[in-house]
């Protein structure tokens, strides 16, 4: 049975549903934490959560403030380091990685560096951090970001993190591991994947109350539309209750 939910709760719920049991996920601060913890408590009890600061395999009791919070090491397999986590990613041990961005293009390339020209930008962002490592080396990356034509753009102002670059085979040509790349994009409007042949973004599902036309209008590039587009199944009351246990103060999901 569905219940009332916020857009952030829906994003976390959809993200959690993408994480398979017996897989590993590279987790950053905020909504990815809730998604990973929710998955571990519901559909993926054997999910191996790996935090950027070095917590590997924890059973986190409540939402940490950041990836360096001591709670990210609670009942962990290892209290390691960022160096070891990045090395594990480079060695091919990380199945999923979460990313956010200021801009994304049709091939899943991401910009978290500048809006405008590099030499004199209108806005300057924090830059890559570990995002380039995650996008380059995790087998599947899941991007969570707000959607509008200024963010889903034809051409990025700066490529911080590679997606499929300019199309099929491009990642391999620049030396990135074969088989890696963007997997899903989740926005407040819907769920997106990447066409197996063309490596361009395609609409997989719209959220309740959202039409295909809404998704198209909020996209600044040609969005691929398959013959059948699903509608997201909203979270149940039980799932929302679990989410509220994870984030009791509403630090991320709000109230």
Compact overview of the structure:
This protein has 255 residues and is α/β, with parallel strands linked by helices. It has helices at residues 7-17, 31-41, 82-90, 131-137, 170-173, 212-217, 237-246, and strands spanning 24-27, 48-51, 55-56, 78-79, 96-99, 103-104, 110-111, 114-116, 121-124, 140-144, 182-186, 190-194, 201-206, 230-231. It is built from 7 helices and 14 strands.
What does this structure look like?
This protein has 255 residues and is an alpha/beta fold. The protein has a single domain (7-246), classed as 3-Layer(aba) Sandwich (Glutaconate Coenzyme A-transferase). Helix content is 23%, strand content 20%. It has seven helices and 14 strands. The protein has helices spanning 7-17, 31-41, 82-90, 131-137, 170-173, 212-217, 237-246; strands spanning 24-27, 48-51, 55-56, 78-79, 96-99, 103-104, 110-111, 114-116, 121-124, 140-144, 182-186, 190-194, 201-206, 230-231.
What portion of the residues fall into strands of 2 or more residues?
15-25%
CATH class: Alpha Beta
**What is the helix tally?**
7
Overall tally of structural domains: 1
Uncertain parts: none
> Approximately how much helix is present in the residues?
10-25%
Q: Which shape, going by the Cα principal axes?
A: globular
Give me the secondary-structure category: alpha/beta
Looking at how many chains there are and whether they match, the oligomeric state comes to: single chain
CATH fold assignment: Glutaconate Coenzyme A-transferase
Strand order of the largest sheet: 2-1-5-10-11-12-13-14
Mean pLDDT: 94
| First and last CA, distance | 20 Å
Within CATH, the superfamily carries the name Glutaconate Coenzyme A-transferase
Main pleated sheet: 8 strands, mixed
Radius of gyration: 18 Å
């Amino acid at each position: 049975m569905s219940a009332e939910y916020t857009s952030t709760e829906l994003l976390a719920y959809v993200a959690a549903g993408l994480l398979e049991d017996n897989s590993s996920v590279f987790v950053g601060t905020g909504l990815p934490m809730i998604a990973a913890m929710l998955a571990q408590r519901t559909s993926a009890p054997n999910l191996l959560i790996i935090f950027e600061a070095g917590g590997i395999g924890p059973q986190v009791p409540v939402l940490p403030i950041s990836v360096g919070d001591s709670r990210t090491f609670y009942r962990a397999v290892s209290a390691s380091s960022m160096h070891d986590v990045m090395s594990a990613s480079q060695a091919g041990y990380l199945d999923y990685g979460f990313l956010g961005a200021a801009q994304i293009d049709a091939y899943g390339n991401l910009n978290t560096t500048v809006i405008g020209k590099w030499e004199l930008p209108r806005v300057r962002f924090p830059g890559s951090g570990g995002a380039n490592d995650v996008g380059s080396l995790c087998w599947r990356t899941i991007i969570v970001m707000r959607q509008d034509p200024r963010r889903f753009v034809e051409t990025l102002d700066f490529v911080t993190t590679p997606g499929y670059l300019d199309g099929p085979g491009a990642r391999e040509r620049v030396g990135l591991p074969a088989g890696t790349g963007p997997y899903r994009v989740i926005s407040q409007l819907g769920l997106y994947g990447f066409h197996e042949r063309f490596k361009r973004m395609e609409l997989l599902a719209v959220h309740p109350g959202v039409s295909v036309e809404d998704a198209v209008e909020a996209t600044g590039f040609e969005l691929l539309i398959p013959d059948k587009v699903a509608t997201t199944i909203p979270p149940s009351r039980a799932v929302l209750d679990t989410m509220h246990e994870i984030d009791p103060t509403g630090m991320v999901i709000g109230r």
